[in-house]
Design brief:
The chain has eight helices and ten strands. It has helices at about 1-65, 70-75, 80-95, 135-140, 180-190, 230-235, 275-280, 280-285, and strands at about 105-110, 115-120, 145-150, 155-165, 170-180, 195-200, 220, 245, 250-260, 265-275. Strand 8 (about 245) and strand 9 form a beta hairpin. The radius of gyration is 26 Å and the shape is elongated.
Length: about 290
């Protein structure tokens, strides 16, 4: 009988110790996965920053080149909108095969900061841009090209503008506008979701668009590429809480979108699913091929 009691106690002790070890292992494994996810997102955020910087440089280089284009200069000198429209439509068509220039937009402004030609809206012109277009104001004031992220009537984009001169006289400026779709597609190809979210309170001059009501407090600037299945989860997150966020089986990284003026206007959100536990995507893709 005594031996039986000892055996029972021993079995219970082994079960208890095994249970404790199992709990500790699960906690360790969960912490290990969280740490891997954080390291993974650190690298991806570096890729995101690098990609956006390269897009700014690419847009800026194109704006400077187009500002010296004879066809652009001539139609400005002649004050011929139809000629300018034909010229920028041709430029956009020529550049369309280059993936980064998909959905390229070009905007011409007069030297008194009014819209002269919009490639995406041929009938809208003459409106004053001074109040809400800091990049355009900067080019007019300093007469130097510049670039950044900025919200406008058409939405939030990567923008670059350069002055157009006739000898020493500034005729106006030309703006190159790139969407976030190129960068979004890069991440999507790696199994990572990217959301470019504009705070609705920061979009005073933005024209309404289809899909504006998908999220409560944000517009999705890369709506065509975004994984809308995640919207219910995103609506529950504090999108001003930057850094790593875990929600059940989902892992998010949130970082601010800062515009040309240094103001936070929204958030970049990267996402991966817990599927990586089975697919080992963190271990296999921790260091992906660079975006540029």
């Amino acid at each position: 009988m005594f031996k039986n009691k000892i055996l029972i106690v021993a079995i219970l002790g082994v079960c208890l110790i095994s249970g404790i070890l199992f709990i500790l292992y699960n906690r360790y494994e969960a912490q290990r996965l969280d740490n891997m996810a954080k390291a993974f997102f650190d690298y991806q955020n570096h890729q995101l920053t690098k990609g956006i910087d390269e897009a700014k440089h690419t847009a800026l280089a194109l704006a400077v080149l187009l500002a010296e284009n004879n066809h652009i200069n001539d139609c400005f000198i002649e004050n011929d909108r139809d000629k300018c429209l034909a010229n920028i439509d041709r430029i956009i068509s020529d550049l369309e095969p280059v993936f980064i220039y998909k959905d390229l937009k070009i905007h011409l402004h007069t030297n008194d900061l009014k819209s002269f030609v919009r490639s995406w809206d041929h009938d809208k012109f003459g409106d004053n841009l001074h109040q809400f277009r800091a990049i355009v104001r900067s080019v007019a004031k300093h007469k130097k090209p510049t670039s950044g992220i900025e919200n406008g009537i058409v939405g939030t984009y990567i923008r670059a503008a350069a002055p157009i001169f006739k000898k020493q006289e500034m005729l106006g400026s030309i703006e190159v506008i790139l969407s976030f779709d190129y960068i979004s597609t890069f991440f999507k190809d790696q199994g990572i979701d990217l959301f470019v979210l504009l705070d609705k309170d920061k979009a005073k001059y933005r024209e309404p668009k289809k899909g504006d009501d998908i999220m409560k407090n944000h517009f999705i600037s890369n709506l065509k590429i975004a994984n809308l299945n995640l919207v219910p989860i995103l609506n529950k997150l504090d999108l001003l809480q930057d850094g790593f966020v875990k929600s059940n089986a989902h892992y998010f990284s949130i970082k601010p979108i800062v515009n040309f003026s240094g103001e936070r206007i929204g958030s970049f959100v990267l996402h991966i699913n817990s599927d990586f536990k089975d697919k080992n995507i963190l271990q296999e893709h921790l260091f992906l091929n660079p975006l540029f």
